[in-house]
Automatic annotation (TrEMBL):
Keywords: Membrane, Transmembrane, Transmembrane helix. It comes from Formimonas warabiya. It comes from the Bacteria. The chain crosses the membrane at residues 7-30, 36-67, 79-99. This is DUF116 domain-containing protein. The keyword Transmembrane applies.
Length: 264
């Protein structure tokens, strides 16, 4: 189920409003202070916060314009990253106080991130894109260790990994299976991808997207029929669509596709 993107944007805006309220409070305290030193100190701090408010405000406006126009605005990318990194924890806290589910807020963030990535014009080759999958996709009863080498998969069809391997081979895109953020970062350092198709739960996708920013990541949420972290599945169509987006301008993939069409 897709979560509305305006939820995340709305919570960011509320967070920004709270900071503006803090600036107004500081200004009020400064005006009513008798001691010049404290007045100057409050004014300087208020100006500092006001500068942050201005930059973050530009970032939120940039997000809204990017989503509305479906077109990237390169000059605002740094401001959008700043707005997300600074206000995201506050947005989560506000959402929690309002009784919202954290996963719902994180899903909204993932939807915003994915649409922002889709506004970019990327020219990538298959070896520059990486599929990053969680170990919980592997059947819990499977004795084969895939986290160090996904080729250990015996392709029995008991989980989604063998289908991901097929997509990896079809598009020439490397696939890795990581049990957590630490090993995921090692794989990123090893392969140095220019873009990532990441499969995970809302929590891990959110932290991963923020961690590797500004590296473009298309997040695909896993499905958890047996609960979190065990025997999860994934919509393979979403994974394939994400791969195709990154390779839409790839010369090598276009040649392979033409060759297959002729052979087929």
């Amino acid at each position: 189920m897709k979560t509305k993107k305006r939820l995340f944007i709305g919570l960011l805006s509320v967070s920004l409003g709270m900071i503006i309220g803090l600036v107004i409070l500081i200004w009020f305290l400064a005006v009513n202070r008798d001691v010049v030193f404290y007045r100057v100190l409050l004014v300087v701090f208020g100006i500092f916060l006001l500068g942050i408010v201005a930059l973050v405000g530009v970032g939120i406006v940039g997000m809204v314009l990017t989503l509305y126009q479906a077109k990237a605005i390169p000059s605002m990318q740094s401001y959008m990253r700043m707005a997300t990194n600074l206000l995201f924890p506050m947005a989560l806290g506000i959402g929690h106080l309002l009784g919202m589910n954290k996963n719902q807020i994180k899903s909204s963030f993932i939807e915003v991130n994915n649409q922002m990535v889709h506004t970019k014009k990327l020219w990538l080759e298959p070896e520059q894109v990486m599929i990053l999958a969680p170990h919980c996709l592997q059947k819990s009863s499977c004795p084969h260790k895939l986290t160090m080498d996904v080729q250990n998969c015996k392709r029995c069809g008991g989980c989604s990994v063998h289908r991901l391997l097929e997509l990896s081979e079809k598009y020439g895109v490397p696939l890795v299976v990581a049990p957590g953020g630490t090993l995921a970062r090692r794989f990123i350092e090893k392969y140095r991808p220019q873009a990532i198709v990441a499969i995970a739960c809302e929590r891990d996708l959110t932290s991963g997207i923020l961690d590797v920013n500004p590296l473009p990541v298309l997040g695909v949420r896993n499905m958890r029929p047996e609960g979190p972290c065990v025997n999860t599945t994934v919509d393979l169509n979403q994974v394939e669509n994400a791969i195709q987006f990154f390779l839409v301008n790839s010369e090598s993939w276009q040649k392979i596709k033409m060759y297959r069409e002729v052979e087929g």
